[in-house]
Each structure stands twice: as C-alpha cells, then as structure tokens.
C-alpha cells in the first residue's frame, strides 16, 4: 500500500483482508498518529493479549501496511507511509461510525473533532483554523481553504486534496523561519505542501512536509500535547495564547 499502483492491477482484496479484522483495525487507528509503537501498547489499544497482537502484526507486515523498526532490543511498529494513513482516512469517510455506548466515548469523539492528528499533521477544528490563518496572513496562497463539493473534481472528504495548488509565499517563508520552521530544510524529503479535506470540518488542513514540520514545532513548544486517547491532541494554555499572537488563530474554549 505504500507504493503507487494502478488500481486496475492492485490486489485490493489482499490489502482489504489485512485490515478487515476489528483488532487489526484498532491497531491501525492507533498508528494513525504517525508514531512508532511497541507491540505491548498496540495490544492494549486493540484490547487483545500480547500473543494475539503478534499474529495480527505479522499479517499487517506481510500485507505491507506496517513496518517494524528495531531500537536496541525493542521492536516498534509504524505505518509504512502517508499513503496508508490516507487510505485509512478515506475508509473512515464511507464507514459507519462506531456506536457510542458511554460518555467517555462521546467525549473522545468530541475531542477528535476539536483537534487530532491525521498521520503526522494537525487535523480537526485546530487544523483547519491554522490553515485558514496561514491563508489570511498570506503565508500560503492559491486557494481559500474550503471544500467546494459542487465544483470538486478530485477532492473528496477524508482524503488528500487534488484540486487546489497551494504555494508558500516569500513573506510566508520568512515568517515560518522566524517561528522555527525552515522550509528550505524540508526540500526534497517529500512534497512540501499538500492538503487534506478534513472529514469532520469539511475544509482544508495543511499536510505534506510543511504540515508535519509545523506540527512538530507546536509539540516542541508545548503548545499542543498528545491526549490520553489515540490521535487526540490537547491545546495548552500557552498554545492557545501563542497561536493567537503568532498566527491569529482564535479557537473557542
């Protein structure tokens, strides 16, 4: 799934079978944050034993959906690349929601809508607000940050955008460098600017190398923190103040 293949020649059934199991789907949702996680954490996320999650991870590895990294004696698993995360986000668009059976689940769903990770960049209300602010300030240009379903050709909810070409302006490059994100250092790693059509907000949030670098900077400044539930991001008081002063991002409490 990490490589580009013509859909007519792709073994879609094999990839679908690898992620169809509910426990494996929970493992993949845990990895959507872009982090590498050990099997013990993934077992907890999936609600299965260590021996059971090992079997699930073996199937995901065989399908090329995840890869393993060795750090000393420990093994960590992560998605093979952004394409896998994009495919999972696209499936979320057509999948029925999981039934909410508790207040805790309802709170988690609300937190995901407010701020979450989409692979390695910020999504949800926070992500689209940041994108809108970058456009308003002239850091980016080329579009209005909105999803227009009536005229969309390649764009669709919960998927990488195709219809709009965003560009980093010269003043924007300088402003981001002052913030601690050097766009020149990101050149060549992957596409600098991409966007996703956010499935909860139905607007654009920033992706690509620039979106990932901005997210890393927000974490480094402790403006955002990872929540106790998967993919959830918590905006700190310093982050709320800093984002408003730096980029003009104003969010409801």
TrEMBL record:
Entries under Gene3D superfamilies matching the protein: Winged helix-like DNA-binding domain superfamily/Winged helix DNA-binding domain (1.10.10.10)
Family matches, as InterPro entries: ArsR-like_HTH, HTH_ArsR_DNA-bd_dom, HTH_Metal-responsive_Reg, WH-like_DNA-bd_sf, WH_DNA-bd_sf
Span of domain HTH arsR-type: 4-99
NCBIfam families: HTH_metalloreg (NF033788)
Identification of the protein by name: Metalloregulator ArsR/SmtB family transcription factor
Native source organism of the sequence: Streptomyces javensis
């Amino acid at each position: 799934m990490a490589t580009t293949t013509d859909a007519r020649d792709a073994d879609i059934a094999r990839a679908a079978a690898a992620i169809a199991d509910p426990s494996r789907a929970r493992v993949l949702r845990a990895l959507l944050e872009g982090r590498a996680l050990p099997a013990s954490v993934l077992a907890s996320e999936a609600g299965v034993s260590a021996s059971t999650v090992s079997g699930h991870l073996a199937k995901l590895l065989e399908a090329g959906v995840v890869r393993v990294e060795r750090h000393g004696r420990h093994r960590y698993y992560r998605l093979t690349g952004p394409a896998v995360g994009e495919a999972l986000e696209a499936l979320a668009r057509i999948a029925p929601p999981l039934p909410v059976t508790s207040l805790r689940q309802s709170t988690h769903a609300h937190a995901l809508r407010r701020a979450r990770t989409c692979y390695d960049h910020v999504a949800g209300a926070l992500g689209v607000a940041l994108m809108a602010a970058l456009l308003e300030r002239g850091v980016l240009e080329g579009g209005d940050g909105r999803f227009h379903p009536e005229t969309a050709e390649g764009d669709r909810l919960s998927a990488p955008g195709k219809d709009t070409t965003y560009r980093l302006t010269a003043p924007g490059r300088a402003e981001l460098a002052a913030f601690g994100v050097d766009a020149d250092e990101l050149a060549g790693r992957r596409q600098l600017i991409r966007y996703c059509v956010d499935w909860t907000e139905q607007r654009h949030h920033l992706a690509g190398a620039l979106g990932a670098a901005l997210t890393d900077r927000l974490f480094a400044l402790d403006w955002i923190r990872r929540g106790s539930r998967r993919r959830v991001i918590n905006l700190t008081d310093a982050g709320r103040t800093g984002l408003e002063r730096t980029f003009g991002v104003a969010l409801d409490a």
